Structure formats: C-alpha cells, structure tokens
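hi! just following up on the protien thing from before. the input was this:
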Amino acid sequence: MRLSLVDIVFFEGVNHLRPSPLQTFRGGGDRPETRDRIAVDDLYGIEAIGPPVPFRVGLSLLEGDLREDFDACLRDIPADAELGTPGAEALIAPGGRLEEAHRLVREACARDYQADTIAANLLARKRPRLVFLAGRGVACQFGQPGPFMQKVHRRLAANDGELRAALARARAAANLDEDTVSLVQALGTILGSRHGDHWDSDRAGSKCPYDATVVLE
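and the predicted 3d structure came back as:
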C-alpha cells in the first residue's frame, strides 16, 4: 500500500525524529556570522551525515578560487528561505543560484564519485530550511530517481501547508524545535530512518519492502 507523506509523518514521524547534526554542530551553518561563507566547522559538520569534502576542495572554499563564487551564491539565497513557502520555488529553479552553488562544488569534487552528495550536504548545512536531502533510502520509497527538490516543495506547499503543519506537530511532540531540526530536514530524517538498511534484500535479489511505497505527487 502506498502512503501519503502526511500519513507517514502523522503515524510514524515522532518515532523517527532526532536533532539534525547539520544544524546543531557549532551553532549551525546559517548562523549570522558565517551564513554567507564557508567556515571550517561547515566542513566538519557535514561529515556527521555523509562523505567529507576533499581537502583540496575545502581549502578552495575557505581561501581559494571557489570562495568568491560560492559565497556570492550564498549571499543571493536568504538564510531564512524555507522549502514549501512563497519565494522558495524561484530559489530552487533550474539555473538559479542554488543550482549554481551545487554545480561549483560538484565540479570541484569531480574526481569523487560522491560529488553530488557532498555538494547537497554542504548546501543543506548552509541553508537547512531550504535544501531537501534525499539519499538512496528516500529515492527507494519514492520509487523514482531524483532530483526531488521541486516536487517536495510543491508537496510542502499543497493544501495550505498541510504537510508542513504535520511536520511541525511531530517535531513539537518529539520535544524538538526549528533550531535543532528544520521542517525539511525533519522530513528527510523521517523518511531515511523509516527505510533503514534494507539493501541486503536488494543484493539477495528480492524487492525492498519500501520500494515505491510513498506518494510524492
């Protein structure tokens, strides 16, 4: 049976929620003093959830060729922008500044097979209310390849923000707040946690029990 995101959050959300290390490590990447530039703690912060930024790329973001262009992208993306709210669609549109920032890091990490993941995690650290992270487990549940940002944005905005309201209730029930896990990070955490590690069934030749079980559109 396929479930809606609202139903998943309502029935399962509170059991899967926890603070986001992207937001809690050293005060978060969007704190006022560093929100429009990369700091050393941003490079450490994303290692809590995925692959590290290659040393040469991190150095370039801190003080090299990448710094000026990447920081300029960040300045054009408001730190308080939220997926699912008015104005966010323009920020995540193809050819926009978010895509440009992602491209800069992805191309700099081109020799790393996880370049897309590194770029996405770094942007989620800097703009945790805007960037939706979708790992393999999330893609499995949606039953389709990414990217998902625009589709998730529309889902969060639909029905007068019904999904956003459900996420806010689940977050409050888990005794968490906006400073520890944003709504969009909460959604990614819930989906990733409920899927868990079911790749063994894939390797054994059987279908993952969570494959295509979530309605995205």
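The radius of gyration is 17 Å.
Residues 142 and 177 are 27 Å apart (CA to CA).
cheers
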